[in-house]
TrEMBL record:
Taxonomic placement: Eukaryota, Viridiplantae, Streptophyta, Embryophyta, Tracheophyta
Protein encoded by which gene: LOC107814159
This protein's name: Anthocyanidin 3-O-glucosyltransferase 2
Organism for this UniProt entry: Nicotiana tabacum (Common tobacco)
UniProt GO MF annotations: UDP-glucosyltransferase activity
Keyword set includes Transferase: yes
SUPFAM superfamilies the UniProt entry points to: UDP-Glycosyltransferase/glycogen phosphorylase (SSF53756)
InterPro entries, per the entry: UDP-glycosyltransf_plant, UDP_glucos_trans
Keywords annotated in UniProt: Transferase
């Protein structure tokens, strides 16, 4: 069989970059005739992400996966955007010429043993590069690292936008909306964060990107048929000019986690030693993602709730960034943000840390529950390692993910689904009750969670659903040769 090359590019954020890399690895391992080149967008404004980029760029080729660091483009000025997605979208757009040059070089190398470029995979915010792919006659695919429900939401965002008059917010128009891919009406208070204020640039950027998805040859989603069957079947029945062919090929996970490239940052060794001394399935893990942070008043309520619940806990606390282009930081003085006496009262019972290698923590036998921001990577990791979820969405599409897990799939315990930092406050009583339901529960939610968790390991077996869909994608990629 002839050799073939595929090219990937991702938004420079860990939640986008990591699953893109893992999918590229999986594709090339499944079919040895493929090689993959991952184009890296540098982002000095975010040292955590940039250090990961630097690590990748310096890494020797792993299997058939290569990394190519693009020349740095001029960053957007602060007055060009209101929301973080505005900054990222403009930064990505500013790399158009660099991406074209890289693709031209890869195409010119097609006579070598590496083969023809048969596909260019972009992610949800890299839509400017659709035009580059068209110009160079390369089939362009969307790799969507969020759930199928959010994909359906995005594909129908234009029609949703048209339902509400221009000067009206969604919350002022209706309390619920019917959206393809959801079996229940979706409450507005669970809409993604960018939907809350239509006049800021965040909303317009999402609308802009969503309108371009239909221009791709297909959409690869990091999910699996058995998990999101209702939504995937709805997408499959949608007309082709709204939703291109969808390939659910998940769960694609990074089982090593970021500890492999920056262990010292996390205090990794101390955390793992502490967990080793805890009873199996006894510890509650709380983490709100690499971009998640909570107000000090909310941190205090969580602390009081944890103390009331009495369960051992590992809690990753992050301080809000001072610049909207940056990521949260670890706190340097916990006594300033926690209730007086909390650290002493929970000494030995709980451990507070900064950002930790989440997948490594979830894989540990001591973890019995996960209070999660409901980022999709985190949900898939929890499912794979069998750690039940308590929902606490913070930003992006996480409120929609929480709604799906609790109401659509009955796979998670609700602590909150509509938390918005600065406008809502979850009481310590609600925290304590939610933790108790999560850690004590043996009911329908936990049983369903266990069954789906088992499915995670089966979908990649021969004739498993994700294996079949990946085979269909590979056939389509090779058909252009």
């Amino acid at each position: 069989m002839k050799k073939a090359k595929v090219v990937f590019i991702s938004t420079p954020a860990l939640g986008n970059l990591v699953p893109t890399i893992e999918f590229a690895k999986h594709l090339t391992q499944t079919n040895q005739n493929f090689s993959a080149t991952i184009l890296l967008i540098n982002i000095p404004q975010r040292p955590l992400v940039q250090s990961y980029n630097d690590f990748l760029a310096a890494t020797a080729t792993t299997g058939n996966v290569h990394f190519l660091s693009l020349p740095t483009a001029d960053p957007p000025s602060l007055d060009q955007f209101d929301a973080t997605i505005g900054f990222l979208s403009l930064l990505i757009q500013n790399h158009t010429s660099q991406v074209k040059d890289a693709l031209v070089n890869l195409i010119s190398d097609s006579d070598s043993d590496s083969g023809q470029v048969v596909g260019f995979f972009i992610d949800m915010f890299c839509t400017p590069f659709i035009d580059v792919a068209k110009e160079l006659n390369i089939p362009c695919y969307l790799y969507f690292a969020s759930p199928a429900t959010f994909l359906s939401f995005m594909c129908h965002l234009s029609s949703l936008d048209a339902q509400v008059s221009v000067n009206t917010e969604f919350k002022d128009s209706a309390t619920h909306f019917n959206i393809l891919g959801f079996s229940n009406p979706v409450p507005v208070n669970c809409f993604p964060s960018f939907m809350l204020k239509r006049k800021i640039d965040g909303y317009s950027w999402f609308l802009h990107h969503a309108r371009r998805y239909k221009e791709t040859k297909g959409i690869v989603v990091n999910t699996f048929q058995e998990l999101e069957s209702y939504c995937l079947n709805s997408l499959a029945s949608a007309v082709a000019d709204v939703v291109p062919p969808v390939y659910p090929i998940g769960p694609v996970l990074d089982h090593n986690g970021p500890a492999q490239w920056h262990q010292d940052l996390w205090g990794h060794e101390n955390v793992m030693k502490w967990l080793d001394n805890q009873a199996p399935s006894s510890v509650l893990f709380l983490s709100f993602g690499s971009m998640g942070s909570l107000s000090i008043s909310q941190v205090k309520e969580i602390a009081k709730g944890l103390e009331k619940s009495g369960y051992p806990f590992l809690w990753a606390i992050r301080e809000a960034p001072k610049d909207k282009r940056e990521l949260p930081n670890d706190y340097t003085n916990l006594e300033e943000i926690l209730p007086y006496g909390f650290l002493e009262a929970t000494k030995g019972k709980g451990l507070i840390c900064g950002l930790v290698p989440q997948v490594t923590i979830l894989a540990h036998k001591a973890i019995g529950g996960f209070v999660s921001h409901c980022g999709w990577n985190s949900i898939l990791e929890s499912l794979y390692y069998g750690v039940p979820i308590g929902t606490w969405p913070v930003y992006a599409e996480q409120h929609l993910n929480a709604f799906e897990m609790v109401k659509e799939l009955n796979l998670a315990v609700e602590i909150t689904m509509d938390y918005r930092d600065g406008t809502t406050l979850v009481s310590s009583e609600k925290v304590a009750n939610g933790v108790k339901n999560l850690m004590d529960g043996e009911g329908e939610v936990r049983q369903r969670f266990k069954k789906i968790s088992e499915k995670c390991k089966e979908v990649w077996k021969e004739n498993g659903s994700s294996s079949v869909f990946l085979g269909q994608l590979i056939d389509k990629l090779l058909a252009v040769i």
